[in-house]
Amino acid sequence: MNELRARIVKLPLYKKVCLAILALYLVIAIFAPAIMPYAASDFSHRRLAPPGRAHLLGTNELGHDIFSLLINGFRITISLALVAGFATTTLGTALAFISVYFGGLIDDTLHFIANLFLMVPELVVIMFVAVFAAPTLSNTVIAIVLFSWVRVYKIVRAKLLDCLKKDRVIYTLSLKGNFLDVARVLAPDVLPIWGSFFVIQCNRAVMYETTLSFFGIGDPLAKTWGKLIKSAMDYSNLYYDNVFLWYLLPPVLVVLGFVICLALLVTQEE
Amino acid sequence: MRLHRFFSRTLIMVLVASLMLTLVGCVDNGPHTGEERVLKMDFSGNMGFPAMYTTASNGPGYVVMHYMFDTLVWKDDQGEVNLLAESYSLSDDSLVYTFKLRDGVKFHDGTPFTAEDVKFTFDYTKEHPYQWTSTSMVKEVRVVDDLTVEIELENPYVPFITDVAGNLPILPKHIFENVEDPTTYTEEDALIGTGPFKLESYDPDAAVYVFVKNPDYYYGEVQVDKLILASYSNPKEALLAGEIHAASLSYPEAVSLKDHEKMTFIEGQSIQIGRLFFNFADPALAVKEIRQAISYAIDREAIVERALDGSAIPGTAGFVHPDSPWYNPDIRVYNYDVDKAKELMASVGAVDTDGDGIAEYQGQKLSYELLVGDKHTKVSEMIVSYLQDIGIECVVKVAEDSTVKSNISEGKFEIAFNRHGTFGGDPKYMACLATNTAGAIKVSIPGGKRWQNIEFDELFYASLQEPNKEARQALLDRCQEIVAEELPTLAIYFPVNAAVYNHTVFDGFYFTPDGIGSGIPFIYNKLCLISGRWQGK
Amino acid sequence: MRRNSVLRLILRYILYLLVAILVSFALPRLIPGNPLFLLAGDHGIDVPSNLLKQFEAYYAPDLPIVEQFFLYLRNLAKFDLGYSFYYKTPVITRILGAFKWTMLLSVPALLISTMLAIGLGVRMGLAPKGRGASLLPPLLAIQAVPTVLIAALGQILLGYKLRVFPASGAYTPGMTPHSPGYALDVLAHLLLPLIILIIAEIPSTAIFAYNSTLRIKQEQYVTFAKYLGIDHRDVRREFIIKNILPEMLGKLSIQAIMCVAGSLFVEAVFSYPGLGTLLKQATSYRDYPLMQGILLMSCLYGIGINFIFEFILHRYTRFR
């Protein structure tokens, strides 16, 4: 614990700020039900009310409280990010382990597939899969996970190949340690990159979900930030009477804050 | 050094290539066209090559084609007018229509239009089904002389004039007799018709259609020289900026321009319906009282106001549009009343016995999947909440629109919400509630176990063959009463369309009664451009 | 030996190509539900029998799957990607028509963004006392933002609110390539999406150039050049830029793909008539043959670009 604190203290100021903001996001996501003044499904309010005491960010055309939707979006979007980020990173790392441990044809095949994936923009492929699948949040996550593990795989694999030359690994291998033994020995070397990839992939998941939402792909009732942005943009009189200030801007700023903080957190200082 | 040269050379080459790409088509050698009357209208997307068989299979697709092709009869703001036909008559047995054709009509390539072309079109559409009109009820088409044609039907079919003669574009025989497969035929002569416009250019990438007027149009002088249809990502802005002169806008957008000095706001008749489909295989949904309870529980006025920005008429129960001349105003009315709904539920024993907020009917929980298209999620959100209030739980299953349609027609749903068109004009669309659904559009017929009512069937079939208007009205009145009582389907709303045009450029747009062709709610009827007035300088 | 490695390179790319074709073959056959229903359209009374025939002739759902694949390959060899359900024209003509607009947008964006980014990255790398690092956070921030969001905000602000640029389309409807002022009109419509695409593409190249510069800066000949008092501008040009170019070439191949991908999303926002808008239409009409065609073309494009760059690098290592 102390070690963690020491590492945080050593971070440059902007990273500390990012960390604080992200912590705040997480707190909001966890305590969302307590923070939301109204239920996310409650549309009984006066429609299109401007911001005021009863509705911090006004209401939308259906009569939802926009602030409540936004807070609810923290919960949905951040869980999506965490699940997709974790799954992608784990999948990529696991495949890298398999690749390196078994080598030979398995390694060649996986590496071949990874190289092919790198040549085609992954977001385009994700879009295709998401369009074909039924529009549910879990399918969106699956599409993101299935097609964005490649970067993780490539880098973890390179790192592992490096590590294999280390004594203790060679030692374990020569003792004919099984797959899990080797994985355990290699874990300390891989964990740091796993961590930064986790952060990067969380960032990507939100980016991708926002883009998919913009194209109207995914479950329209799962009110992620991306869906809130999309529904604001679909509202026809958005740019009159400054409605966009409280309808469109809050979800945009929240997304920007999240992805930027995540990206800055893992910057390598030279 | 060598490397350096290699790179700089590649770079320069790529640069030059990209510059050349940028400059493609920069040649300024077109003649200056002078004072042309150019009318620009917003169009919702790319409709493909605008020939009869290749244009998109949606409303705008028909509209873009109709500028070049004429039908035997057509509609203007007052209703039916004769277009290629000069007059027509119906035999006493209601089986043979005789059309006298207009003299001196020419196709765009100068070939005279004759009865042969009419016969050819009917025969051709039997071989190559046309997506907007079925000609399957036609037994034979006979050419009497150059300008007279007789069309004999298998059985009397009252909506023949509005649905077939008023909808089927007449093709030039001399061109299409050589076309094996019209669905892929995209040569220039596929666009030769008798209509008021000729296509000057179509840019398939940018979705821009440019038409020029047909100077020899037989029905009257076309009031613009050029007509441009293009899609804009924000038509309201484009209208205000003067980039376009007419647009179909969303209702609130259109209303916001109501008081603009240059703009005219027009509201169209509603000819579409958004409604709930029930699967009658479910024992509870097959109970009349439960469907009535659902009808009482849903506040249709609130849905129209909140989910649709007021751009619709709240649904009525008889499955005939309240603005229709065939509408029966004395049918049962269901005003929003939760208590009454609960009473009805209780009367058939559908009550919540275990206190989980969900009612049971014959031991079965009233918990359903509500299938809904991705464009109607707001409506579905509200319906779910209303049904919750009377103890019916719905889980929304969102799918892409065509999936919803196919699931409904295959009976793969419990409760479904869908919106479809062709809900104006002759009430033959009620066929979708009858046992024999012939004549109803595909999207309106649910699959699986359906509602059946022998009395309704008999009355409805009688109405299709009843030439006397009052007798027919009586039959249809009774049909509506039955439907309103039984609620085989539940109308939630009838959407209203709105459009805005710049009257300082062109004045005289209107919404066609019952829509263009078979019910397309646009203001772009070609006859507007003949009866209207050019106001620009 | 040398010829052998070229052969292996080519073989590897042929394998990539085959796998990509296999994927694009398999995708529409994995669609749940019956895509034929879509042919019926909103008012569907009958499925036009000719279209049905075409669909069957192209997809041949009755044949064994292996024969279907060979049929697909045969069609591909004839550049036949099938008929678009929606446009009822060959998929290939729609794709090629849109591709020229995508190229018009993405090629200049790629070149301009790369040049600006190299300039920026090298300057950052050479800035005294590592001050260039302070520019990293803003670059990373831009990189993290979804391109569609930048595009949508740019369109609102510059297109609708300030009306500096035309906000949608590629040219004013009604103009033809022969109308006077057509080129200027096209340019005016190009500017806003181009600027946004450039902004979106700069960060990753700039950061890459920055890292390469830091590495090269430590090489002895650079330090030596400084001691000799050679003008810093010459150092930058002669020693740094020239030496990071080979590395940048590798980056450029990735960037060439990312630029087209980014362009797809920018186009969709601006209704720019390229592949992005086509893709958006194809997804909203569920035009499977068209979507399949676009997927295949983007795979082929990616593989093609990679092959070209890898081939150049291969040739280049021989020079050394």
Question: What can you tell me about this protein's structure?
Answer:
The complex is a heterotrimer of chains A (270), B (537) and C (320). By secondary structure, chain A is mainly alpha-helical. Chain A contains 13 helices and no strands. Chain A is elongated, with a radius of gyration of 22 Å. The mean pLDDT of chain A is 87. Chain B is of the alpha+beta class and 537 residues long. Chain B has a six-stranded mixed beta sheet with strand order 14-20-13-19-17-18, sandwiched between helices. A four-stranded mixed beta sheet of chain B has the order 1-10-9-8, with no helix packed on it. In chain B, strands 4-5-7-6 form a four-stranded antiparallel beta sheet, covered by helices on one side. Chain C is 74% helix and 0% strand. Chain C has helices spanning 2-29, 49-59, 65-77, 91-126, 136-144, 147-161, 182-217, 220-227, 232-270, 275-284, 288-319. In chain C, α9 packs parallel to α10. Chain C is globular, with a radius of gyration of 24 Å. The model of chain C is unreliable at 36-48 (pLDDT under 50).
Summary of the model, kept short:
The complex is a heterotrimer of chains A (270), B (537) and C (320). Chain A has 270 residues and is an all-alpha fold.
Number of strands of chain C: 0
Rg of chain C is 24 Å
The topology string of helices and strands of chain C comes to HHHHHHHHHHH
What form of chain B results from the Cα inertia axes?
Answer: globular
Query: How helical, in percent, are the residues of chain B?
Result: 25-40%
Largest interface in this structure: B-C, 77 and 69 residues
Helix content of chain C: over 70%
Characteristic terms for this protein:
heterotrimer; B: alpha+beta; C: mainly alpha; 11 helices; globular
Give the secondary structure arrangement, pairings included.
The complex is a heterotrimer of chains A (270), B (537) and C (320).
Chain A: H1 2-10, H2 13-30, H3 32-35, H4 66-102, H5 104-119, H6 122-132, H7 137-147, H8 150-163, H9 167-174, H10 179-214, H11 225-234, H12 243-247, H13 249-265
Chain B: H1 2-23, E1 38-42, H2 59-66, E2 73-76, E3 79-82, E4 85-90, E5 96-101, H3 115-127, E6 138-145, E7 148-153, H4 160-165, H5 173-176, E8 197-203, E9 208-213, E10 226-230, H6 235-240, E11 246-249, H7 251-255, E12 263-267, E13 273-278, H8 288-297, H9 300-306, E14 312-314, H10 338-347, E15 360-361, E16 364-365, E17 367-373, H11 377-389, E18 393-399, H12 401-409, E19 415-420, H13 454-465, H14 469-486, E20 489-495, E21 498-502, E22 506-507, H15 528-531, E23 533-534
Parallel strand pairs in B: 1-10, 17-18, 17-19
Antiparallel strand pairs in B: 2-3, 4-5, 5-7, 6-7, 8-9, 9-10, 11-21, 12-21, 13-19, 13-20, 14-20, 15-16, 22-23
Helix pairs in contact in B: 8-10, 13-14
Chain C: H1 2-29, H2 49-59, H3 65-77, H4 91-126, H5 136-144, H6 147-161, H7 182-217, H8 220-227, H9 232-270, H10 275-284, H11 288-319
Helix pairs in contact in C: 1-11, 4-7, 4-9, 4-10, 4-11, 5-7, 6-7, 6-9, 7-9, 8-9, 9-10, 9-11, 10-11
